[in-house]
Design goal:
about 375 residues; alpha+beta; seven-stranded antiparallel beta sheet; six-stranded antiparallel barrel; disordered N terminus
Length: about 375
C-alpha cells in the first residue's frame, strides 16, 4: 500500500511538471472541464487565424482624428396657429401678432479628406441650413461653408479654414468583402465621438428608396442619429464608406445600417471640388423592372432588361426613336439587369456622348443611336 502511494505521488509530480513545461513552451491556457479532462484554449495572437485581432484600437486611433462633429442651425418660421384666423378669436383678442421665427438645431458627422480643408458629409446633414460649425477631435471649432452637394447620392462637401489638419486614408476601391470587420465613427445623439464595431453584412444594397443612385454597404455596426456623414473604416483604419442611414422602427440602431461606398463618394467628391456640382448622363425615360406579371401582359421574356413606361417628349430617347413598351436590354453592350443598373450606366456617360441602345420591340431586337443629355438637377425640397 505504501509503495502504491509512492508511485502515485511520483506520477502526479511528473504530470504536473510536464504540464508546466508544455504551458511554458506553448502559450496556451490549460483548464479543466466538469468531466476532469484537460481542454486547451488558444490565447496567443500567433495562434489566432490570420487577420483576427482582439483589438481595433490602432485602426480607431488612425481614423478618429479625421472624423469631425458637425453642428448646424436654421432659422424657421413658427407655425401659425389655426385658431388665429377665427373671426371670433380676432374679435375678442384683436389681430394676432407675427408668430416670429425660431432656430432649429441639427447635428451630424463628417470626414476630413484633404489638408486643404475639404470635409465629406451627407447632403441631408447640411440641407437648407444657415450656419455650420465643425468641431475637430482635438477640440478646435471653426465655421464651415458648403462647396457643393449632390442630393441624388446624399453627399456634400464642406470647406474649413484651418492648418495642420488630420486626413483620412481612402481604402482601395472594390476590396471590401461581406464578413470584413468595420468601425463606424461619428457623433451619435451629440454625446461625442464614438466608435462602434461590426461587420459588413451586405454589399450593393439598392431599391431602398433612400437616394436616387443606391449602392449601399450594409453593416451591423451601431449607427444612430448624429452618425450621418461619419466614417465607416476597415480594420486598417482606412475609409470604406460614409455612414448615411439606418433601418429602424424606433429611431435607434437595430443592427441594419447603410453607408455610401468610397468608390461613389470619391467620384462625387472630385466633381464637386472641381466643378461645384455633379454632372450625369440622361436620356429621358421612365422604366420599370419586368416582373412575371408584366412579362405575361406585354408578352416579353422576364430574363433581363427594363420596360420603358415613359418617354419624355423631345428628350434624347424620344429623338432616337424609343417607344413606350420597348424593353431596354443593353447600353453600349452593357447588359441592363434592372432599373438601378440602367441608371448607373447612363449616369456614368458624359453629356454629348454617342451611345447605342439595344431594345426589343414586338419580339424584334434592334439598335438605336442616342446622344446622351445632361441629367436635370433634382427639385429642392420646400418646408
Amino acid at each position: 500500500m505504501r509503495k502504491f502511494w509512492l508511485v502515485f505521488a511520483q506520477t502526479a509530480t511528473i504530470c504536473v511538471a510536464a504540464l508546466f513545461v508544455v504551458s511554458t513552451l506553448r502559450p496556451e491556457l490549460l483548464v479543466w472541464n466538469p468531466r476532469g479532462n484537460i481542454v486547451t484554449v488558444r490565447e496567443s495572437p500567433s495562434d489566432a487565424p490570420s487577420g483576427v485581432t482582439n483589438s481595433f484600437s490602432d485602426a480607431a486611433q488612425r481614423a478618429m482624428p479625421a472624423v469631425v462633429n458637425i453642428f448646424t442651425s436654421q432659422e424657421v418660421k413658427r407655425a401659425r396657429q389655426p385658431f388665429m384666423d377665427d373671426p371670433v378669436f380676432r374679435y375678442f383678442f384683436g389681430e394676432p401678432s407675427d408668430p416670429g421665427t425660431q432656430r432649429r438645431e441639427g447635428l451630424g458627422s463628417g470626414v476630413i479628406v484633404s489638408e486643404q480643408g475639404y470635409v465629406l458629409t451627407n447632403h441631408h446633414v447640411v440641407e437648407s441650413v444657415d450656419q455650420i460649425e465643425v468641431a475637430l477631435a482635438d477640440a478646435r471649432k471653426v465655421p464651415a461653408r458648403v462647396v457643393g452637394t449632390d442630393p441624388e447620392t446624399d453627399l456634400a462637401v464642406l470647406k474649413i479654414e484651418l492648418s495642420k489638419l488630420p486626413t483620412i486614408t481612402f481604402a482601395r476601391e472594390d476590396q471590401l468583402r461581406v464578413g470584413d470587420f468595420v468601425l463606424a465613427i461619428g457623433n451619435p445623439f451629440g454625446i461625442g465621438q464614438t466608435v462602434t464595431l461590426g461587420i459588413v453584412s451586405g454589399l450593393g444594397r439598392s431599391h431602398l428608396g433612400i437616394t436616387t443612385f443606391e449602392n449601399f454597404i450594409q453593416t451591423d455596426a451601431a449607427i444612430n442619429p448624429g452618425n450621418s456623414g461619419g466614417a465607416l473604416v476597415n480594420a486598417s483604419g482606412h475609409l470604406v464608406g460614409i455612414n448615411t442611414a439606418i433601418y429602424s422602427q424606433t429611431g435607434g440602431s437595430m443592427g441594419i445600417g447603410y453607408a455610401i461606398p468610397v468608390s461613389t463618394a470619391r467620384k462625387v467628391m472630385d466633381q464637386i471640388i472641381q466643378k461645384g456640382s455633379v454632372t450625369r448622363g440622361w436620356i429621358g425615360v421612365g422604366v420599370q423592372e419586368i416582373t412575371s406579371e408584366l412579362a405575361e401582359s406585354f408578352k416579353v421574356p422576364a430574363t433581363g432588361g427594363v420596360l420603358v413606361t415613359q418617354v419624355e417628349r423631345g428628350g434624347p430617347a424620344d429623338r432616337s426613336g424609343v417607344k413606350l413598351g420597348d424593353v431596354l436590354l443593353a447600353i453600349n453592350e452593357k447588359p441592363v439587369a434592372d432599373t438601378t443598373s440602367m441608371l448607373n450606366i447612363i449616369a456614368a456617360l458624359p453629356p454629348g456622348a454617342d451611345a447605342k441602345l439595344r431594345v426589343s420591340r414586338n419580339h424584334v431586337e434592334s439598335e438605336l443611336n442616342v446622344i446622351i443629355g445632361r441629367r436635370p438637377k433634382p427639385q429642392q425640397r420646400t418646408e
